[in-house]
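Exercise (ungraded).
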Amino acid sequence: AQRVTQPEKLLSVFKGAPVELKCNYSYSGSPELFWYVQYSRQRLQLLLRHISRESIKGFTADLNKGETSFHLKKPFAQEEDSAMYYCALARDDKIIFGKGTRLHILP
Amino acid sequence: DAGVTQSPTHLIKTRGQQVTLRCSPKSGHDTVSWYQQALGQGPQFIFQYYEEEERQRGNFPDRFSGHQFPNYSSELNVNALLLGDSALYLCASSLLTFSGNTIYFGEGSWLTVV
């Protein structure tokens, strides 16, 4: 069965320090993977997808098929990065989400 | 373009009652999907509507039903409410053959069952 695992419920990082949010997936085919972000009191929005390989707000994520991972990284955390982050996998036109990681940037 | 709009934003219901949530998709989108997000969890797929028919369904009981209208708007109905149905209900709109960057979420409807 397809599954997305985010092992950390909460990640606290000091401002200016590097950030890595972990995501592992299980999927038998070629996965289409995403990261979604939800800022406080705002709607869920797409942060990035692995196909585009672009950097949004300084975040990047590389698909590692050997390790079935799609970790989200940013070299220098900013206070405005505090939010809930969801790793997700698309299959049959629906999205399967992980449970999410709350990123808390410490001043 | 208002994007995906949902109503109501918050509501409180009693166990056993029925609830209807509404969604208007983003202009130009023909497919509406509903997700349930319980506290501390990621969104879970309920079902998807296209051309006024349920196209696919997640692992939710028949108490959860929906409808899509000719203008592509949609309703989610939940009968015989349980305490465990308390959650944020998200509507997402897209084109049928979407890529991830063409799916848009509404702000959600917070349902509390007491």
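Further reading is listed at the end of the chapter. For now, observe: The mean pLDDT of chain B is 93. Residues 88 and 110 of chain B are 4 Å apart (CA to CA).
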